[in-house]
Design goal:
Helix content: 40-55%
Low-confidence stretches: none
Strand order of the largest sheet: 5-4-1-6-7-8
Radius of gyration: 16 Å
CATH architecture of the largest domain: 3-Layer(aba) Sandwich
CATH class of the largest domain: Alpha Beta
Structural class: alpha/beta
Number of strands: 8
Strand content: 5-15%
Distance between the termini: 5 Å
Number of domains: 2
Largest sheet: 6 strands, parallel
């Protein structure tokens, strides 16, 4: 196990498998507004952005309507069909049993995060949860990670941030924490590896190995 006292994790694509949920929410929001789906390439290039930013990019003047439609469908889906990746629960408990302090840093909306944590067993493992509502700027800006560190009262050199998107690697580097690439997530591994993360994990089991 890598020797970091503090482990911070992204949420979507790192701890929980939300690929189909995200694609479905984009599909439903677009169909409701325009009667057509967005190209999958457009959806995937916006997956790491905040929902507000993504809505603005894909819907322009109708961004608020797109955002509201997405959130409405997303809350229904998160209440019924979002699950942890295989091995994540075991990974988190092994880290906790080894004395690690843990937190979540995500660009996701807090109500959706809470819905998922109510359904999984590992929610109590996290000392701090930073969502999109907690900071003015968002990944790849370092502020969400720095906000988590301030709340935990620790310095960057004590922590590693593990995530599945290039934004996660860039945010970790800008915050001065070690970066860990979750290669099992939503984004192609090569997109992360070309940024030279400090660590690359092929599976959750490798994180706590």
């Amino acid at each position: 196990m890598h020797d970091y006292p503090v482990w911070l994790f992204d949420f979507d694509g790192t701890l929980i498998d939300t690929e189909e949920v995200i694609l479905d929410c984009y599909r439903e929001a677009a169909l409701g507004l325009w009667g057509r789906e967005l190209p999958e390439a457009v959806v995937r290039e916006n997956m790491s952005r905040t929902l507000r930013e993504a809505s603005q990019r894909v819907a322009g003047e109708q961004a608020d309507s797109f955002f509201d439609a997405y959130v409405s469908h997303s809350l229904r889906r998160h209440a019924e069909s979002v699950f942890a990746y295989d091995g994540v629960t075991e990974m988190l408990w092994r880290l906790r049993d080894a004395g690690a302090r843990m937190g979540i840093v995500t660009s996701k909306l807090r109500p959706s995060v809470n819905l998922v944590l109510d359904q999984v067993s590992y929610g109590p493992a996290f000392e701090v949860i930073v969502t999109v509502e907690d900071t003015e700027t968002h990944k790849p800006d370092p502020e969400p990670i720095l906000h988590a560190l301030r709340r935990m009262g620790v310095s960057p050199e004590m922590a590693i941030y593990v995530g599945d998107s290039p934004y996660d690697i860039m945010a970790a580097r800008a915050a001065g924490v070690a970066s860990g690439a979750a290669l099992w997530g939503l984004h192609p591994p090569d997109d992360l590896l070309e940024l030279w993360p400090d660590h690359a994990f092929a599976s959750p089991a490798e994180v706590a190995a």
